[in-house]
Design brief:
The complex is a heterodimer. By secondary structure, chain A is mainly β. Chain A has 5 helices and 21 strands. The chains are: A mainly beta, B alpha+beta.
Chain lengths: 304, 90
Amino acid sequence: MTSSIGFAFASPNAKDVREKHEQKLFEIDGISGVSVDESTNEIVVYTEDAEKGKKVPKSLDGINVKQEVIGKITALSTTTLSRTTSYNPVFGGISVGNPYITAGTLGLVTTLTLNGNQVALSNAHVLALDSRNRFLPKVTTPIYQPGVYDGGNNGDTIGYLYNYIPISFNNNRANNKADAAIATLTILGNVGDVLDADNINFYHISGTVTANVGDTVRKSGRTTDVTTGIVTSTSASVKVSYGGKWALFKDQIVVGTPGFSAGGDSGSAVDINGKFTGLLFAGSNTVTIVNKESNIIEQLGITI
Amino acid sequence: MAMTAQTQLPNQANNKAIEAARMVKERHENAIFNIDGVVGIGIGLSGTEPGKVVIEVYVKKPAHEMKRMVPEVLEGIPVEIVETGEFVAL
């Protein structure tokens, strides 16, 4: 009984009045927020600017309404980057390819030792081989980012095939050591930057290191993003299927962690603590095969 | 200095063993590749004996089928069969 009498005689409460009118207040254009100042029993309306505040009532149900200009409130969201759309400038870890294949990964933007010009590093079978595994002409073969499978076309040309390490196919005596190629860039690139696991930030690759059995390695690829794995062999010889052809590769790194890579990750730069250790190019259901940096860098004439 | 030397010793021993195994592997590589179902050969560490350097033979057929054809030891280096499946360009 006492409480009901208390209610009946209480002066209007700003909290209750605010709740009653909040929806109506937000319908006024230029209102960013509504609150209550309990110390003064007032309703507070936050506005984008003083002009827009003119439409706000001075009082509601006997409660004073005061205004504060705070500007427009925008959500502090960070946009994650898709690995299969086009970028300018380009960086490591995104879709790339010549017009005749599906898509692989742009491993790293690096520079030519000769003149410092920027180039994109990936696999030969991503940049330099057609769908029948024949080598394409240097200088005139365009490189799309993203690759054709991800919607890339002539308008997405980021540069041209510049150099590759030849691969000898269907040859038992072949001494292939790398499936690697570079393309010149006609747009800008971010040298050494690779898209990180959150698809927002970048990690940086600079310098090189030799992989040893037991090392933890990392890659950033078009399909499986950033993954880490353990090196289980560093001098493997493997027979790799190229859809109709095969090639024998020697002196390869084996990463024995299932799920380290999948189709489309070809060309990913593999690093140990930010130092380049190899180029991902092949795999089976359980392991991934990586070319050693020492069989790539000088052969292509690049500096990492 | 003493600490560094101590921690480096096992690695050096390991590298020596890996290099020795690599030379054995090279001598037998062609013969191993001629075995039907073999897709690769490498040097790694034993899956059963920690720290032991072994020659790994990668196969695309079930390991129990390959056991009859792949030697267990090459010039004193143990051989382990690893069922990887076929390697494809990704």
